Amino acid sequence: MKNYRRSKLGRVRLHTGVKIDHALLPVFGRLIVPRWLRRIRSLPALPIRPRELAGPWQPFDQKVPEELKTQPGILRYPEREQAAFEEIQLQDFFKLHRETMAWMAPRYWRSYLPVARRLLVARRAAHHTPRQDPPAPPPAADGAELAQRLKMKALEFGLSAVGVAPYDPKYTFEQHQGKVAGDRMVVCVLEQPHEPTQLAPSCKTENVALTTYAELLEKMLKLTAWLQSLGYKARCEDYEGESIYIHYGVQAGLGQLGLNGQLLTPQAGSRCRLAGITTNAPLAFDGPVDYGIEGVCDRCQICVRRCPAGAIPANRKEYRGVVKPKLNTKRCLPLVALADGCAVCMKVCPVQAFGLKAVIGEFERSGKILGKDTDELEGYDWPLDGRHYAPGDRPRIPAEVSLPPDWQFDPQRRQPLPAATEGATK
Ligand code: SF4
Ligand code: SF4
């Protein structure tokens, strides 16, 4: 197991980077507003250095031990899910908490600006896909064969994996209802590179995450165009603020929900980015799978212990008819904004670091969680003070970070504020 712990000089550089971020915020943070982002989007494209991608994922073929099994996907109560939807629909976080986003987005400037143009161009193209609806009615097709062709095409375009789930309006935000192209959601996943993720929290890791989102959208646009070329309707959704893709990832059998609130795929844990394409193509559905991930999480709990904000619960609770971990966003978000995106919960996850196959293999051999209690997995360098935190030790979060003076986030809010306060990143 490689230890990604930085040298002392490396930690000084990490800490200095954050100080520079904060000192130059009044200059560069100002660019993260719609007026400037439109200008950045219209800049000429710079040559992109091609990245070596991890390649398509192999199907997960490990037998899951009985003691790790729970249920396929996630435990849900469909009647209570429906009742919650009818009572109040899910809201687009970016609209519901405009003032929070206006506070957070500029603090991302060092991670965001280098990839801003590429990301903005891809997101704009995704927003405009409905205009490219095909003129001809779609041909009849065999669903299983079509889904197979779609998956081959997705891999050819460089996506790590795709799955097909029924479209469900309960998991589209109220602000985006009615935009879909059909009754299916093609969930698309692109793996984020391994090494920079192990350096989280850092600006480098955040930049790689955003670059992966840009690449994901570029590949999804190609897949959308391919579906349209066959005569079907297809609409590429933006990864931000339209639907809850974690729900679709679980329903399409691409992974299960981890205690850190993220989709844990067997191949790369949550070290991947996802979004979706809605379509009327009669693709055969994939279904939820029990990979034993909830069983692993119950025995692991590393992210619960290592989260610097203490924002991850040790247990799942029913929320809107679904049993899941409910993260304390009020504690988490200031760290995400001020500590280079944080992402400690992704970095310390053994499924992310080693893959589920290795984790299950170790569990069968020794009954233990691979990497638990080791510095290689659990240790991280903390940008806000430049110190390394080994297992058993966590950073102390000062009050001005955990509750910044100008921070207005209200997790209880259910209705968006008026548009005048918008500071969106779109
Ligand atoms: S991003 Fe950081 S603060 Fe938020 S849940 Fe993960 S580890 Fe905790
Ligand atoms: S760190 Fe452990 S408990 Fe947390 S999501 Fe990963 S496997 Fe689950």
TrEMBL record:
<dbReference type="GO" id="GO:0046872">
    <property type="term" value="F:metal ion binding"/>
</dbReference>
<dbReference type="Pfam" id="PF12838">
    <property type="entry name" value="Fer4_7"/>
</dbReference>
<feature type="region of interest" description="Disordered">
    <location>
        <begin position="391"/>
        <end position="426"/>
    </location>
</feature>
<dbReference type="GO" id="GO:0051539">
    <property type="term" value="F:4 iron, 4 sulfur cluster binding"/>
</dbReference>
<feature type="domain" description="4Fe-4S ferredoxin-type">
    <location>
        <begin position="287"/>
        <end position="317"/>
    </location>
</feature>
<keyword id="KW-0479">Metal-binding</keyword>
<dbReference type="GO" id="GO:0052693">
    <property type="term" value="F:epoxyqueuosine reductase activity"/>
</dbReference>
<dbReference type="GO" id="GO:0008616">
    <property type="term" value="P:tRNA queuosine(34) biosynthetic process"/>
</dbReference>
<dbReference type="InterPro" id="IPR004453">
    <property type="entry name" value="QueG"/>
</dbReference>
<keyword id="KW-0004">4Fe-4S</keyword>
<dbReference type="InterPro" id="IPR017896">
    <property type="entry name" value="4Fe4S_Fe-S-bd"/>
</dbReference>
<keyword id="KW-0411">Iron-sulfur</keyword>
<keyword id="KW-0408">Iron</keyword>
<protein>
    <recommendedName>
        <fullName>4Fe-4S ferredoxin-type domain-containing protein</fullName>
    </recommendedName>
</protein>
<dbReference type="InterPro" id="IPR017900">
    <property type="entry name" value="4Fe4S_Fe_S_CS"/>
</dbReference>
